[in-house]
Structure formats: structure tokens, C-alpha cells
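Limitations

Structures in this collection are predictions, not experimental determinations, and the ligand pose is part of the prediction. Treat each record accordingly. The example that follows, with flavin-adenine dinucleotide as the small molecule, is included so readers can see exactly what is and is not provided: the inputs are given verbatim, and the output is the predicted complex.
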Amino acid sequence: MTETTISEEFHAVGEDIADTKAPSGPIEKRWDERKFGAKLVNPANRRKLSVIVVGTGLAGASAAATLGEAGYQVRSFCYQDSPRRAHSIAAQGGINAAKNYRNDGDSIYRLFYDTVKGGDFRARESNVYRLAQVSVNIIDQCVAQGVPFAREYGGLLDNRSFGGVQVSRTFYARGQTGQQLLIGAYQALERQIAAGTVEMNTRHEMLELIMVDDRARGIVVRDMVTGEIETHTADAVVLATGGYGNVFFLSTNAMGCNTTATWRAHRKGAYFANPCYTQIHPTCIPVSGDYQSKLTLMSESLRNDGRIWVPKKGGDERAAVDIPEDERDYYLERIYPAFGNLVPRDIASRAAKYQCDDGKGVGPGGLGVYLDFAEAIQRLGLDAVKAKYGNLFDMYAQITGENPYETPMRIYPAVHYTMGGLWVDYDLSSNLTGLFVAGEANFSEHGANRLGASALMQGLADGYFVLPYTLANYLADGPYEPVDDDHAAVVEARQAVEDRIQKLLAIDGDRTVDSFHKELGQIMWDYCGMERSEEGLVKAIGMIRELKQEFWTNVKVTGANEEFNQTLERAGRVADFIELGELMCIDALNRRESCGGHFRVESQTEDGEALRQDAEFAYVSAWEYGDQQPTLHKEPLEYEYVEMKSRSYK
Ligand SMILES: Cc1cc2nc3c(=O)[nH]c(=O)nc-3n(C[C@H](O)[C@H](O)[C@H](O)COP(=O)(O)OP(=O)(O)OC[C@H]3O[C@@H](n4cnc5c(N)ncnc54)[C@H](O)[C@@H]3O)c2cc1C
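Predicted complex:
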């Protein structure tokens, strides 16, 4: 049996898909032309048009605030008790923008180039160019809102470097950049709430998408405090519901991050693109035991000054400070002299894994490498290091009980970000008319590997600068026929939610929801994590199918619907994660190449680097849901501006 038939045993292949909104012409003019070509809505008509925005992270809050300010009727939803608790608040290191304040050769074109290359040629050129263009506006917008970016002595905003680039273009607010940016977006959102253009619904979880006559027209939500099931309809729906890294159980994501909104939309017909592209971040605090439910990121910004090393001799049990310089291997500086400790995340993660596989790992179980600031402290002084990274060092000390100013930090790769997500066109519209997707929830811009500090940039680009034009273009043809609560499609969607909740509560089995989630996470980490193989993926699909079967017959969901019930919430999310996990493995099995965060052992160079197979796989995989099996639609990728070549950071 050939490899192709093995993969195709698990899915069907459909027609290719095209981005029909993709602009042509000179790349630097494409966005301007799209904006000029987009239909406008007269301000007086905007208040007759309604939009549902699910998610209040950077993407959702910025979209809702901007659409509210423009005059549309916006209804905003999140599952937290406050919009400003969205996971975006956890972002530490920074946000990229091509301002070239450092005069070090940066430009819109270079940010575009770095992002296309960093994504291993699996992102669309037009989208990435637009992202680089609007990056400069984002910084101006946030400064105007009062976001306290770090400044240099002369008053200009300060910059630092992130992986995969040789310029300093990352704007930051200590190690709390996401928090400060989210407070900015939240203020803008609150202003609209006070003005009455945005209605905020906290503690409401979207559990279904409502489709009416082939258009996305609303959502079904559960009030997480009372259990009441509500339906909301509008002229358009925006999902800005974040990533799905928690499919691995252990990740750096906030505990609540989940796939339910995007997976429910997928089941209603929205294509899921590149689900297997997961980012494993190299600098996280290593797992310390079975009881753990969360991993902690140590920001990539630490790689600006910290040096990564392992002892040259395997099994060396001496304390780090007792190992002399000539017995240390600064392996990233050795293997990748051009980028050194600032190679992209996928490369740094795999390099750490290989050192540990080789027996050179440090700390419990040998699953760690050192991130050492001794040289930086000597060069810059203790105070300067504290000023730049103090809160990260404190966090490390609190979690590990070790003082990172005196002994190197121990780090190991962990699941961090998902490049895959719902398929969208250039307008950020999914293949379902009226359903738009923003931020980490969509698949666009980062290809197979996201560069550090580019997620915040994308979320804010989508919300502040892209959707306000492209969504308006869609709304200009509205308002659409009003949809009442007793419309058959609304009743059916609501009933489906109620039935599913009752089904979960009725199983009354023996296993906790978390035990299923943990088992799924282990399968995903073992077979669809840093390395994937045909044999492992086939095995994983079988294991996930069995797990799904057991979940729906043996899960124990305590309590009732009509109350605050976190077990019920988690059960619904884990059920969706199980289905998504299976699709991720099928996607990874189909993609018989290595690119970015997706490393297939069968496709590597002689020295163990990722080997792309452009002739066969230069496409986006857009998956259509099917009861029996998913169908793959390919969107071919073409590169006019950046020559497709092997990534080299040597
Ligand atoms: C620890 C950490 C540090 C990071 N640091 C950086 C960094 O320095 N720079 C960078 O660029 N990126 C960073 N990232 C990545 C970045 O933080 C995220 O990609 C980004 O914040 C995602 O924003 P978002 O608006 O798309 O989604 P989120 O911020 O995840 O928001 C999702 C929103 O959707 C809502 N939601 C989800 N599902 C539902 C549902 N079913 N019903 C109702 N509401 C729902 C949630 O309530 C929430 O409001 C980091 C990530 C982590 C984990």
C-alpha cells in the first residue's frame, strides 16, 4: 500500500478552493485597491445593521470597538466574567511593527519577507503584505490609546528582537505587552458599551452557529451562571475566539481556551484550514509532575540576552555553575551562527528536543536545557537585566523556587499557539457567507510557523484595520431579512444545543472529563507533537476514535444544566477537542512533508532539518466536515515576490 492510499483511507478529496477575494496587481497596492473597491455603508444606515462578535481578546475587542464606533449595532460575547480577562492578557513579549525606529534596515517589505519565510512558505503573500503594512498603524493607534510601551532615553519607543529576524522591531511593555494592549482595546470597547453601540454579554458561551438560507445569522449561547440557553441573531457573525492549543491538555494557553466556537462552525460547514500546524514554543518551564494542568511560558524576549546551552557530556549531574565554559555546548550559536539564540521557534524547539534525546538534557527526567543570563548580567549589569525582564524572572523564581539571577533557568518546549484555524479569504470571510473569523481563530498569515510577536499584530490588524472595511463591504448589501426566535433554523440550532447538554448529563459514567482530556493530550503530544510519523499518526487516529467512543458512554458530568456547572462546560469543550484532535492527525498524515511546526520524520534533510515538498504540498489544506470522514479541499499557494527556497538560519 502506498503512503497516499494510507492517508486517503481517512478522508475524501474534493474540489480545489480559491480565495476569490484575492487581489492582484503590485503587492504594495493590493490592500489600498481592495479598500477602495469595497462598498461603503452610509453612517445613517449603519445603526440598522447588526453584528455579533464572539470573543473579546485583542481581535474581538478591537473589532467590536471599531465597529461600534463606526455606528453598527454590535453584540459582544465572551465566556469570562470580564472582556479584559481574555487570554490575550497573558501575552508577554511584544508586538511587531515595521517602524524601523532602530534604523537597522527594517521595512514593510522586510517584515513581509521574514513572515513568509518564517512561515515556511505556507502563507498567502497578499495577506502577509497587508499585515506588514498595517503593523505601523497599530502602534500609532495603541500609543494614542495610552498603551505604555517601553521607551528609550530619547523618548522614542524601544524595540527588541524576536526569533527568526535580524532586526529589532518588537514593541513591548515589559513582559506584559498583551495585558497593556488589551487594556487599550478594552477601554475602547467600554467606551462603546457606555455609548450604547456595543451590548456586552460576559459569561456566555457560544455553543452553536445559526445558519439561515446559507448565511450565518446568529449564535446559540449558554448563560454560564444560570444555564439558560439563548439565541441571538444579526446580519453577520464574527468569531474571534482564539486558538485551540489546549487540545494537548498541557499548553501555555489560558485554561479556558478551547475550540468549541470554531468547531461548532466547522460542523455547520465552515472549512478548518491547516489544523495540524501547531507551534511548540522553545522557552517554557519544564513539566514537573503528573498533577500539572498548565505550563508556563518564559517569553521569547529572553532569547535576546539569554544564552541557551547544555553540558557537552551526557548525564552530567554537576550544578550549572560548576560546569566550566569549555564543557558547555551553546548549540544554537554553534549550529546556526547567523541567528544564534534567535532562530525561529520551530527550529529552537526541535534543537532542544534533540539535545535531550541525546541524553544531554538537564533537570528532572533530563527534559530541559539551560537559558543563562550570567553573561548578560556581566555585560549589562543586574539592574538593566531586572528592568527589562524582572517580572519574568520573578515568575520563574515563584514557580521553580530557583533564583534565575544566580543559576540558569531550565526550559523545555511546550505547546503554545495554533497556526491552523477556520479558513478565511482575503476579506477574513469564511466559506460560509456572513461568517467572518479574526485573530488566532483563523488560519491566515502565519503559514506553518508563526514568528514571535506576530500574533498580537495579527489580532489587532484584523480587528482595528481589516474587518472594519471588509465586513462593511458585506453589510452594505444588508440589512438582511429579520430572523425571529421561532424561525425553524433557530429552533433547530437551539434544540441541538439542549439535546447535547442532556446527552452529556445523562451518561453518568465512571471517568472524569479531565481524565479524557489528559489522555487525549498525551496522544496528541506523543504522535502529533514535535515529531510526527505515518505509523504514529495512524495509531493516534485509532486511539482517538476509541477515546471518543468511551467518552460518549463513560464520561461523568456532575450537576445540572440550570446552574453554574464547570464540569458541564468542560465536557462540551473536551468532546469538541476529541473530534478536532482526530482531524489534526488526519491533516498531519496527509501532509507528507516537513514545514514549520509540522515535522514529519519521513521528510528531513541529512542533518535533520525540515524538508518541504513544494511540488506536492504548496497548498493550504481546507477541511470540510463530514459525518463519516472529512473532505480535503486544496488552495494552491503561489509566490511571486519571495522566492520559495529552503529556510536557512545558519
Ligand atoms: C503565554 C502566552 C504568551 C504570549 N505572548 C505573545 C507575545 O508576546 N506576542 C504575540 O504576538 N503573541 C503572544 N502570544 C499569542 C497571543 O497571545 C494570542 O495568539 C492572541 O492573544 C490571541 O488573541 P485572540 O483575540 O485571537 O484570542 P483570545 O485572546 O484567546 O480571546 C478569545 C476570546 O474568545 C472568547 N471565546 C472563545 N470561545 C468562546 C465561546 N465558545 N463563546 C464565547 N466566547 C468565546 C473568550 O472568552 C475570549 O474573549 C502568547 C500566547 C501565550 C499563551
